[in-house]
Specification:
heterodimer, A: 601 residues, alpha/beta, seven-stranded mixed sheet, four-stranded antiparallel sheet, 20 strands, B: alpha/beta, 9 helices, 34% helix
């Protein structure tokens, strides 16, 4: 280390990312008695989980005693068009209720039923009202609860610290290297086990509900360290983001609006979702308004409104209506809750939606409909993990939450993310701690790896004055992904996107920053391009490979779902600096679980 | 497209000044959008914290024309194009760079708060709580930790020396929420009085005024805490009674 000195922190387990999954992982690892470091890109409590609105899906059976883990499992698999890792979906459905009750024991206050239990709300693709919630700010309640529980568990928290590379000793992970946002100085974390809990990749698209942090760091870190990614073609466009004014385009409008009685209408005032019920969901979806309306009060004798089909279906439908010229003035459709519900009800159930539209769009949702359209929201794909332990294909590297792949198949149901964070966050913390305890060898941090990472991090400062502003490269990437790898894709577009990503990579190598290393967002943006371009390329390559349409991947040149594709994941791994694409079989579901899908249609 | 003059603080705790930027503003834009536009064009290294851009994470606190606000929820059409708009970091905390401040005081105070310790569950292993018993606490739980209330609180705004023994409005509602939690068993009275220093608050309600979540910090949080303190420590009859009665709650 001739040129750069750096500080080193040593832990048994480090967790990268402090949203729901990361916090839960850190809490569990600490409970196992190992030393834990929690590294977050922002301040503690600001992670993306804070924006989750609608609720946590868990078959508590408080509102509908008929609900149980098998029904939740079945809904999740069907929502993911059967491409989910069955074991993850099973563990998730089985363990989610206990994880919710545990949050309550740690101080979370969910909205209550009349008899004082946790109230549950309807959401898309869930057979029963299943989402434990707090108005429309469930994510805030969850992160605050975990945060205030977590700070008393002896976890060392490293805030505003961005990880740039994982460190390896042979075939094992042995830590990570990154920089402090405040000082710009290099920091090294030495650890026996690393948990990735970095969230998603949505910042690669222009219209997105995701914040600046969502640059696919964990996905890229894992891949660079030799881990496999799966299902990267599956990107969820949430059907309802704000569309007007332009500066708020993409901000999320919770599915809870529809769960609580809101309906989608086109410019002709028609509830168009009845025209978009796919064969796969016909049996459980109302095909007329009268039945759909009755369903809100009587779920036993009526089928669910098509407004609450899974998100991929609704997003495609909205997209088609707008294309057909039946959109709202600003290129969305109308979402109307004021016709069905009283102003008081809306303000009580959806306070932040009321506030958000009132403040940012000048729209009173208790009196007029909202204008909404699809917004990039979530990536189903991620690090390939062992279902039970969350360990990746690299020893000592674990992943949980959005950065992990498999749990949601080709499309995630609303509410299944917060429960995923808790269930697999806990598991990742547990198994990372056990791995660290069992590991008897010694690990050495290779200073050459640290030096190389530091050199990369500092390189934008050393480029010539002709270098490019990183913000324009990021913005061009977002434009490319939005136009060419969006909701509806085709071969020519995806190939064009891959070509352009190649050019953008070259431009990124010439990105230049001004000023110094202390809290310099231009520099941070330049560094984030590394992971952002990596995940954009992965997503495009996987989208090109999968020549069918399923869930969050729609190919207009291959518009049908193909059974042979239903048996494989698209797997991406790095070989000699290039991303290799392969198809590998899905784990086979055991027959007792298969039977759940034959019982009723 | 109207063009505004933004006077943005550039610098750190050692030196700094307001720098003017001329920015074209589209309909519906908020102050944070304008800051982003300055970053993307003139000043890529302009330091600012932000995450959700929807008033939910509480990262982008600043003082806009002297008023503590969230940049993401402050629409540009509030302002007159002819007048320059100043954007300064929140003054209650030490500057790091430009609009970013060192808010670690809040994280230190957070760690001091005695956590929830809950009573045993119902026979079925779960808990019952009535909605009306948690309405008030749910109001406190709306807090997005933007720390604008901490910024504006004049017990600490210009009195660094008070920070040691004063938790601030954010943590008064945190404490009030714990004290009112139906499942909690901890008695935090001594903490509220001696460590959090609720007595220093002279209920000017500045915190309530700037709260972007419209939490009635003073009326619903601080005043009930103060009343408890008055009963607990300064009411002679209650004091006597307590001497003869076993305490229900365990001290923190």
């Amino acid at each position: 280390m001739a040129n750069h000195d750096y500080e080193t922190h040593e832990h048994d387990v480090i967790v990268i990312g402090a949203g729901g999954a990361g916090l839960r992982a850190a809490i569990e690892a600490a409970a196992q008695g190992v030393s834990v470091g929690l590294v977050c890109k922002s301040l503690l409590g600001k992670a993306h989980t804070v924006m989750a609105e609608g609720g946590i899906a868990a078959a508590l059976g408080n509102v509908w005693p008929e609900d149980n883990w098998q029904v939740h499992f079945r809904d999740t698999m069907r929502g993911g068009k059967m491409l989910n890792n069955w074991r993850m979906a099973q563990l998730h459905a089985q363990e989610a209720p206990e994880r919710v009750l545990e949050l309550e024991r740690w101080g979370a206050l969910f909205d209550r039923t009349k008899d004082g239990r946790i109230l549950q709300r309807d959401f898309g693709g869930h057979r029963y009202a299943r989402l434990a919630h707090v108005g429309d700010r469930t994510g805030l309640e969850m992160i605050r609860t975990l945060q205030y529980h977590g700070i008393h568990q002896g976890i060392d928290v490293y805030m505003e610290c961005t990880i740039a590379r994982l460190l390896k000793d042979g075939d094992r992970v042995c830590g990570a290297v990154g920089y402090w946002r405040e000082s710009g100085r290099t920091v090294v974390f030495k650890a026996k086990a690393v948990v990735l809990a970095t969230g998603g990749i949505g910042k690669a698209w222009k219209i997105t509900s995701n914040s600046w942090e969502y640059t696919g760091d964990g996905h890229a870190l894992a891949m660079w360290a030799g881990a496999d990614l799966i299902d990267m073609e599956f990107v969820q466009f949430h059907p309802t983001g704000m569309v007007w004014p332009p500066s708020v385009r993409g901000i999320l409008v919770t599915e809870g609006v529809r769960g609580d009685g809101g309906t989608l209408k086109n410019s002709e005032g028609k509830r168009f979702m009845f025209d978009y019920i796919p064969e796969f969901f016909k049996g459980e979806t109302a095909d007329n308004e009268a039945e759909a309306d009755r369903w809100y009060e009587d779920k036993k004798n009526n089928r669910r409104t098509p407004d609450l089909l899974p998100r991929d279906e609704v997003a495609r439908a909205i997209n088609a209506e707008v294309k057909a010229g039946r959109g709202s003035p600003h290129g969305g459709v109308f979402l109307d809750i004021c016709t069905r519900r009283s102003a008081d009800y809306i303000r009580r159930r959806l306070p932040s939606m009321y506030h958000q539209f009132k403040e940012l769009a000048g729209v009173d949702i208790t009196k007029e409909p909202m204008e909404v359209g699809p917004t990039c929201h979530y990536v189903m794909g991620g690090v390939r993990v062992d279902a039970d332990t969350t360990q990746s294909t690299v020893k000592g590297l674990f992943a949980a939450g959005e950065v992990a792949g498999g749990m949601h198949g080709s499309n995630r149901l609303g509410g299944n993310s917060l429960s995923d964070l808790l269930v697999f966050g806990r598991r990742s913390g547990l198994y990372a701690a056990l791995y660290a305890k069992d590991f008897g060898g010694t690990l050495t941090v290779d200073s050459a790896q640290v030096e190389e990472a530091t050199r990369r991090m500092l390189s934008p400062f050393e480029r010539s004055a002709s270098g490019e502003n990183p913000y324009s490269i990021q913005s061009d990437l977002q434009e490319t992904m939005q136009q060419l790898v969006g909701i509806i894709r085709n071969e020519a577009d995806i190939k064009e996107a891959i070509k352009r990503i190649g050019l953008l990579k070259a431009r990124a190598r010439n990105a230049r920053v001004e000023g110094h290393r202390q809290y310099n967002p231009g520099w941070h943006t330049a560094l984030d391009l590394d992971s952002l371009l990596t995940v954009a390329e992965c997503s495009a390559l996987a989208a090109l490979e999968r020549t069918e349409s399923r869930g969050g991947h729609t190919r207009e040149d291959h518009p049908y779902t193909d059974d042979t594709w239903g048996k494989v994941n698209v797997v991406l791994r790095l070989k000699d600096g290039r991303v290799q694409v392969s198809r590998e079989p899905l784990p086979e579901m055991p027959s007792d679980l298969k039977a759940l899908f034959q019982e009723r249609k | 497209m109207p063009t505004f003059t933004m006077q943005v603080f550039r610098g750190d705790r050692r030196a700094g000044d307001f720098k003017p930027y001329r920015v074209a503003v589209d309909p519906g834009m908020v102050v944070l959008d304008v800051i982003h536009r300055i970053q993307a064009t003139e000043a890529p290294d302009l330091a600012v914290r932000w995450n959700c851009k929807a008033g939910k994470c509480g990262s982008c606190s600043a003082e806009i024309n002297g008023k503590p606000r969230l940049m993401c929820m402050t629409r540009m059409d509030l302002f007159n194009e002819a007048e320059p708009i100043t954007v300064a970091p929140i003054r209650g905390f030490p500057s790091i760079r430009d609009l970013v401040t060192d808010v670690s005081y809040n994280y230190q105070k957070a760690r001091q708060v005695p956590p929830l310790r809950i009573k045993p569950p119902e026979p079925d292993g779960t808990y019952r709580m009535m909605q009306e018993d948690i309405d008030r606490i749910q109001e406190f739980h709306k807090c997005i930790e933007c720390f604008l209330c901490q910024d504006v609180c004049h017990v600490i705004r210009d009195h660094e020396e008070n920070k040691r023994a004063f938790a601030g409005p954010r943590f008064f509602i945190k404490l009030a929420g714990l004290e009112m939690h139906p499942l909690d068993t901890v008695d935090r009275s001594a903490f509220v009085k001696d460590v959090a220093g609720v007595g220093l608050c002279n209920i000017t309600k500045c915190c309530t005024e700037v709260c972007p979540e419209n939490i009635r910090i003073t009326d619903n949080g601080i005043i009930p805490l103060k009343e408890r303190m008055a009963d607990e420590f300064f009411d002679p009859i209650l004091w006597l009674l307590r001497r003869f009665r076993s305490q229900k709650k365990q001290p923190a």
